[in-house]
Write a structure and sequence with these properties.
The chain is of the alpha+beta class. It has one domain. Helices cover 41% and strands 23% of the residues. The strands form 3 sheets. The chain has a two-stranded antiparallel sheet. It has a two-stranded antiparallel sheet with strand order 3-4. About 7% of the residues have low confidence.
């Protein structure tokens, strides 16, 4: 059995299918806004799974994020304050035994991604994008491990 959702974005029909990885699904929130959530991931791949993808913003790109993103308390005015918050959350995940995968979210790459999927900048979109690239990196690393060591690594 397959489950799919059809929704309209910008007047165009879009589809998200359960079991397909890294699909974004719009969810209307109180006040009429829309948040984008990754949907269709298999059970072991949700954000709370042991291989969690966290994200890191670079200090030199932080002013561009502040300019690009709408105001949000999770993006304080100073990079140092954001990094302190990131470090605390990362420590909680590590102490809980989660194998975290920190990915660097680059401003221009996020901007291009949001343009491609036609999503407005938001903190939810930033987190969804980080989860998307984090899962992609985790899957690539798992595939490389499954192949075994390369000839160069063997000897």
């Amino acid at each position: 059995m397959s489950v799919a959702v059809t929704y309209y974005f910008g007047g165009q029909p879009r589809h998200a299918t359960a079991g397909s990885r890294n699909q974004l699904l719009p969810v209307q929130v109180k006040g009429g806004g829309v948040e984008w959530h990754v949907w269709g991931a298999l059970p072991g791949e949700f954000r709370a799974s042991p291989d969690q993808a966290g994200y890191h913003l670079l200090a030199e790109e932080y002013p561009a994020f502040l300019e690009f993103m709408p105001r949000d308390a999770r993006l304080p005015a100073r990079y140092e304050d954001w990094y302190e918050q990131f470090a605390k959350e990362d420590e909680v995940h590590r102490r809980a035994g989660m194998r975290t995968k920190d990915v660097v979210v680059r401003h221009e790459e996020l901007q291009a991604f949001l343009k491609r999927v036609q999503v407005r900048p938001s903190y939810a979109a930033l987190e969804a994008y980080a989860a998307f690239i984090g899962r992609k990196e985790i899957e690539e690393e798992a595939a490389a491990r499954a192949k075994g060591p390369s000839l160069r690594q063997r000897g």
